[in-house]
Specification:
Elements lengths: L16 E5 L6 H11 L5 E5 L17 H14 L2 E5 L3 H9 L4 E4 L1 H4 L2 H11 L6 E4 L6 H13 L5 E5 L17 H9 L5 E3 L1 H5 L5 H10 L4 E5 L17 H9 L13 H40 L6 H18 L3 H36 L1
Parallel strand pairs: 1-2, 1-8, 2-3, 3-4, 4-5, 5-6, 6-7, 7-8
Helix pairs in contact: 1-2, 3-5, 5-6, 11-13, 12-13
The protein binds phosphoenolpyruvate (PEP) and manganese (II) ion (MN).
Phosphoenolpyruvate (PEP) binds next to helix 4.
């Protein structure tokens, strides 16, 4: 894929590139107040605002539409920031180009749909306007790459990926689980593609944005996109995850930036970079284990209700067979996988035996009370 580095189309670019602005354009005053405030933050170079909003349920605020594009162009004139908005179809592209939007982005709900991405790519042929592609809502790297490839084939070489986390049926501490290994794998496959992190949609919580911004810097991402609003609690969409311009300024100035990973960096830098990657995978392993143990407890409860023993030998045999087969398939040694699962399974049985003991205790207590 032919990708032009961002410093070729954003003058005097520094790391981190910060994209700030409200989730949605609401009023001209809100746009200008936000833009003027964030333009005072040195690293903020791009102003974002959603003009057409893909909402989960109908009858929510679906964006101000074309009117908002005029406000974006005023922001551009008055602050000198580049401006960006989300496009989801050919009509959006046509209007955004008409009003001089500098950069387009494709939202997570659009990246999942190859028909929509192709429609956008076709509408963009011959323009070579920069396009940022958010990851699809589901954890599918090929779909994310497919969208980038469609744009590349349409002649767009100013491409950026935005990591905004992945939706999951599992309960998680994040609004959209970051699954860092996916953007890391994208970076391995397309090392020249810039990646920007969107901590607002990952956390869904303004108090945790700083943490995810730091993490993004630690894994060598190029910048962040942070939803910013003068009065976040009154925002018409995504209120809980928007920060004020002052909060944004503090978040950015407190970032601890590591030296960029480059072919001539020292052994220590390379080692540090790889260890950061290991750390993020380890924390995903721990989170996955926690999810596993939540289910173990639900099974424990079911066994109590149905008077079944904690250790069921046949199930243990099947489990071991499955994990050693899977380990072999991905190139891990089967005995290693078995050893890990012996420990995990032993702990699961202990957890369920403990549940059983406390159930019997309370049952005894209840009997004695009678
Ligand atoms: C947004 O950036 O406001 C947005 C709708 O994001 P996503 O496509 O990541 O949900
Ligand atoms: Mn939003």
């Amino acid at each position: 894929m032919d990708i032009k580095p961002m410093n070729k189309w954003i003058p005097n670019l520094k790391r981190p590139l910060v994209i700030a602005g409200p989730c949605s354009a609401e009023t001209k005053e809100q746009m200008l107040a936000t833009a003027k405030a964030v333009s005072q933050i040195e690293d903020v170079r791009i102003f974002r605002a959603g003009i057409w909003k893909p909402r989960t349920r109908p009858n929510s605020f679906e964006g101000v539409g074309e009117e908002g594009l005029k406000w974006l162009s005023t922001v551009k004139q008055e602050t000198g920031l580049m401006v960006t908005t989300e496009v989801a179809n050919a009509r959006h592209v046509e209007l955004a180009l008409k009003y001089g939007v500098d950069i387009l982005w494709i939202g997570a709900r659009t990246t999942v749909n190859p028909f929509s991405v192709q429609e956008i790519a076709d509408a963009l042929k011959g323009t070579n306007i920069p396009v940022m592609v958010k990851n699809p809502i589901n954890a599918d790297l090929a779909l994310w790459m497919g969208a980038l490839e469609r744009l590349s084939l349409a002649g767009i070489d100013k491409l950026v990926a935005i990591h905004r986390g992945f939706s999951s049926a599992q309960k998680s501490e994040y609004r959209n689980a970051p699954l860092w290994r996916i953007p890391m794998e994208l970076k391995r496959l397309l090392p020249e593609l810039p990646i920007i992190c969107d901590p607002s949609h990952i956390t869904g919580d303004r108090n945790r944005i700083a943490l995810v911004c730091q993490k993004a810097m630690d894994v060598d991402m190029d910048g962040v996109m942070v939803e910013t609003h003068p009065t976040p609690d009154q925002a018409w969409s995504d209120a809980a995850q928007q920060v004020t311009p002052t909060m944004l300024s503090n978040i950015i100035s407190n970032l601890n930036l590591k030296t960029e990973f480059s072919p001539d960096c020292t052994f220590e830098q390379k080692l540090g970079d790889l260890r950061t990657q290991i750390d993020s995978i380890d924390s995903e392993i721990i989170e996955a284990l926690k999810m596993r143990f939540n289910i173990v407890e639900r099974i424990g409860q079911l066994k109590i209700e149905n008077k079944v023993t904690a250790l069921q030998v046949r199930r243990m045999g099947q489990l071991m067979q499955k994990v050693s087969d899977q380990a072999t398939n991905v190139g891990l040694r089967a005995p290693f996988a078995q050893e890990i699962y012996n420990v995990i399974h032993e702990e699961s049985v202990k957890v369920q035996a403990e549940q059983m003991r406390s159930f019997l205790k309370t049952e005894d207590g209840a009997k004695n009370d009678k």
